[in-house]
Amino acid sequence: MKAKLLFSLLLICCGLGAIELPIYAQWQARHYIYYDTLQKGKELSWDELYRAEIGIEQARWKDWALSFALESEEFFNEALVKLKSFNLGYQLPDERFTLGAGTKLHGYGSGSAIDTLPVLERGYIPYRFQPRRMNAVALGFEYNPASLWELKAGGNKHNQASMLLSYQHQKDKGHYAFSLDARAMDNHWRTPVLIPAFEYYDNWKQVSWDMSVATALFPEWDATERHNDYFALGELRYNAERLPDMGIAAAYKKQNYAPFEEHEYRVYLAQELGAFRFTPIASLQEVDKERLWKYTFLSQYKLLNNSTFGAYYEYSHFETNKPRHTLGLAVDLKFEPAK
Amino acid sequence: MILSLSLLSSSGCRFTSPSPSSEPIIVFTFDDQHESVYQVAFPIMQEYGYRGTNFVNTAALGKPRLFGRDELIEMTLSYGWEAGGHTLNHEALNQLSYSEAIRVILEDYQNLQEMGLNPLSFALPKGQCPSGVYPYLQGLYPNIRGSSDFAMYCPINRQALGYLAFQTGWNQQVIKQRIVRGIAAGEALIIIGFHRFNAEDQSYTDSCSDTVFREILSFVKEKNLRVLPLAEAVNTLR
Question: Which structural domain range is residue B212 located in?
């Protein structure tokens, strides 16, 4: 009831203020049943993941800009609605500078084919390395139309006071970004940490690639030894005109607590036939020398550009080769404002 | 805008921060108070420095082949294990009237409280609970575990927890692979359940040998995974 009142009020404000409201909404769900030949007596299991999100991409009014997103995951019987992100920005009289404040989940490594095929492949936290919520104030400096510096200062209720300095540069068809993230406490050791990171996306003709690397530098602090954790994620894609699209992705993480070392590799093809898209995928995940192979066939019906209904079959096994067979449904619907 | 924001906070929306750590937590549960849990599993857990969670039928404590109140109190109050509810005599809640179902849940809860054990978690016998009884359970226990196995990601739904129950004839590979799949998929919580150990009668479908149990704990130790009682694990992930 209160949520309805909230949105009604927003709509009224926008009508009165003649603001265009670029609302978007998204629903993601994955339902699957598996038959595990190793688990004699408990071979069958069923599971479901649900996620809903609604928000405003960016609403502008004079010198102000607003964006926010609400999300709810699985707890629909509790009506648990979370504020996923909120950002309010103001352009200063010197138009190169902006002031902002808000909250969002921040981390490293997301959006790759490793995490999105099929939808909700890794649950609900989008970042693979050092995810945490950052509630912050920000000062942005637009060095030129293609370059932006930003300094954020803030933290969260887990006492992770932090400062984040970043530089982003937009190229013709790509971009790159450096960042330096200093936290009073990291996620695991609860000691200070410094995280330099680099992201890069680019494309050339039919080939596109993106990569993300980060390292967490831990000083000697109380019982924590001085050490470094490492993370890297990359994807290379080839979008052919007459051949199937193809891609290869890899992720690596090394840290001083379990799991100590993770490798993941994924190769896929994607062929469109009318409104259907067929994607065979082969993956290898190595967790501290334990190897899990997965072979997946995903078929999707494209409702619109970013909306699909899908079904998949997955055959997976460890070294023992006692396989698990999984059948699943994957839904990813997005309503987006006309651009 | 200010009014909108205040409505945002008062409508149940909240800021959240994810669990500070990204490794999964392992929970070992022990249902139905078989004497072998105290005689076999408890000492082995002690060797590894792990604490488990007992789900007991308080009216059955001390009956033949079952451990008693003294053992439960010892594990819980002296060694930091958790004691959770499981109805008075493992009744199938869907075969009872509403009032009878409430009685077997409430008296079981009160028995645990009288022993000074502060019950915070409940395991559904046979994983069954009529929908009409569920709200009562939710009001009594912050944590409720069923009998199905499924992936548990943050945010954890603490009143709809799953677990994988060890079956007779399994070896440590089954549990090891379940744990590794969970790590690979980014799961936050993995619950493994046991019922009895070294059963001579092979007709029992839920017996684990002490050798296999030790291999499972060795694997978890080697991986340096955190092992906690259920309520502590769930509180850590909130």
Answer: 2-236
